[in-house]
Amino acid sequence: MNSRSIQLRSITAVGLMSAAVFASNYIQFMIPTPFGPTRIHIANGICLLAALLFGGVKGGTASGFGSFLYDLTFPAYVATSWVTLIMKFLMAFLCGIITHGVKNESSEKFPPVWRRLTGIISGAFSYVLMYIVKQFVEQCLFYGIAFKAVAVSVFTVNLPVSLLNAVLAVFISLILYSALLPAIHKTGLAEKFGVK
């Protein structure tokens, strides 16, 4: 297989996973709160699935780009869409490098459960940390809201919902990966699209 064909398939895989991440953001439950609306969603689980299937770089690219595009569809998220791109990339990248190694050198057809779980949990909870830091930076530094007021909002609404989303992401990505990977290998698509 020539390098141009491999490159095209890699771009296709990233594009398909970006579309899945984008669409998964719409599977959500909006929750009104005194501090503004928040949401429970499955998108982080699909971001981690991308990392499990394609490794840190391709999975991170798909996660970041799909989430970035979703943010562009909501006026309230547009200004920080570039931050979302970086944070979702980092979440999936961390998951991918823990599961498959820094250079995707893992030769295992189906990485052991402990590596998958370590990667998924690290990715999911690193995003919670990044999201909480982002809330403080954005609200305190850019909007000038008092630290105490931001802390009340973050620790009563943002943190609990983010932790719930992280737990959902762990279960969703692990279940989907375990269900999809054997089928992808069986059909021969794994080698064609660089599935790990």
Give a concise summary.
This protein has 196 residues and is mainly α. It contains seven helices and two strands, in the order H-E-E-H-H-H-H-H-H. The chain has a two-stranded antiparallel ribbon with strand order 1-2.
Provide keyphrases for this structure.
mainly alpha, 196 residues, 4% strand, Arp2/3 complex 21 kDa subunit ARPC3
Could you please describe the fold and organization of this structure?
The protein has 196 residues and is mainly alpha-helical. The chain has 7 helices and 2 strands, in the order H-E-E-H-H-H-H-H-H. The chain has a two-stranded antiparallel ribbon. The mean pLDDT is 89.
Describe the global form: elongated
Rg of Cα set:
17 Å
Largest sheet data: 2 strands, antiparallel
Structural class: mainly alpha
C-alpha end-to-end distance: 18 Å
Query: With helices defined by DSSP (H or I, 4 residues minimum), what is the helix count?
Result: 7
* Oligomeric composition of the shown chains: single chain
